[in-house]
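> agent: user asked for a holo structure of the chain below bound to 2-oxoglutaric acid. Plan: (1) validate sequence alphabet, (2) canonicalize SMILES, (3) run complex prediction with ligand conditioning, (4) return tokens. Step 1... ok. Step 2... ok. Step 3 dispatched.
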Amino acid sequence: MLSSPSTASGHNLRLILKSDGCRMDRFISRKRPRLSPSATQQRLSPDEDSTDMKLAILLSLFPDIEQDALLDILTSSGGSVEDASAVITAQRAYKPVKKRAGGVSAIQTSMTSHITTEAGLPPKRQLARKGKTLHLFSPEDVAAHTPCTIIHNFLPPDEADALLLELLDESKHFSRYRFQLFDRTVESPHTSSLYVSTPEEIRQQTSEYTYGGIYRSNVRQLTPHLRAVSAKVQRAVNDEVQKRIQTCYPDGKKLKYQSPKEWVPNAAFVNCYDGPTESVGYHSDELTYLGPRAIIGSLSLGVEREFRVRRIVASDDDEGNNSEVSARGSTADSPSKRKATSKGIDVRADAQGQISIHLPHNSLLVMHAEMQEEWKHAIAPAQTVSPHPLSGNRRINITYRWYRDALHPRNIPRCRCGTHAILRCVQRKRENKGRYMWMCYAGHEPGKKGCTFFQWAEFDDDGEPLWEMKPTEDGAPTLRNFIEEDDKQ
Ligand SMILES: O=C(O)CCC(=O)C(=O)O
Ligand SMILES: [Fe+2]
């Protein structure tokens, strides 16, 4: 049955029904929400690529200007946010800049896709379109058009409420990440904490593991409800992964680099979005400890929010489009080099538009193996939210993750900064698309400069790292799966 979005948010909504052969696609197009400059200013995701971050800064500073127009100005300003913002301010003194389109536009479902995916999946009919947002509600549509599956009403209602209350209480201890973006220190636009099983694992997480090149300070011990629910998430995610392999992947076989082993979560990131403006910018999750073709189970509680996804578009050119390299270089390089590398600004970033998956209370979203390498995701800021009876304006999100033993920090290549390198996948540059690399990321830590360490990362077909030098086996513990053997039944 068609689910209809709340109109309480005041958004201008229009429902589009379009027949497509044997199936009916359902989605809604609506105006992009506007951000308040004060709420989002200087708060961005640490793993956003450089162009996205720059655009996000400009969008937060000039919420009334269309993204395309901002991108043009950014390009003509040589990729400099400061210069672009000076241009807009100066232009405004004389003439109005192109505003975001008002009203609602219908989106055709008949666009033919010429995309081949890195995973070798058959190209799907492309629904999204430049500058537009397609809204998906039904699990069938989500599975058919995104690299995700969604299960609504995942937990018994009382269990979902108990977990929500437990985590709302925990959220008093959450914090914002601080990281370096060019010459500024910025904060994440929501709060979070990482949960692991034992005090020893907390010690490791704060002194050996890094996140976006930074040691975490906010790590907490798994709570009773988080642990209990993880057993159900583990079962459901493994079932969904098997279904996905059988129904969507070529020859019904797992993808190259995807692990054939059971997915066993041993770390949980818990995020709190307090009010409509709290968000997370477009990013792919860091692969350092998850390895290639990572799978993530993401449980949403409290206020419903929009999870946006968009496919990463490949490019042939060198300039600015190898975002992995330019993002790294941008924090460590001189301003003049920075300008040069970001000049070929990524006008393709928005070329296919975005898809919005609505995440109601008590829904489990599985991000499948093709997600992190080929797509980006975000929690979009909203104009308003419909309050939840238990959490008010707050949304809690748990991403359950499987940190792989083989990718424990002691096994990972070290860069010249002394910390270990981070693992990324080449996402844009066609020539090397899909290759993995180890690189320094220390430049994202406030007050630190990174080094230029770079090494291609090699894995076998099952995603096990092939090290040039065998790591030393010191017998130190790795992270334990959240569920004990006897919970597994
Ligand atoms: O809040 C969400 O649903 C997504 C969070 C996320 O992308 C992340 O923690 O990496
Ligand atoms: Fe994420």
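> agent: step 4 complete. Summary for user: The pocket of fe (ii) ion (ligand 2) is lined by residues 283, 285, 377 (CB under 6 Å). The radius of gyration is 22 Å.
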